[in-house]
Amino acid sequence: MTDAIINRRSIRKYTDKPVTEEQVKELLQAASLAPSWTNSQPSRYYVAMGDARDAVAEMLPSFNKTNVENAPVLIVTTVVKGTSGYKKDGSVSTHLGDGFTHFDNGLRVENICLKAVEMGLGTLIMGLYKEAEIREYFEIPDSQEIVCVLAVGYPEIQPEARPRLALDEIAVFKK
Question: Fewer CB atoms inside 10 A, N or C side of the chain?
Answer without folding.
Answer: C
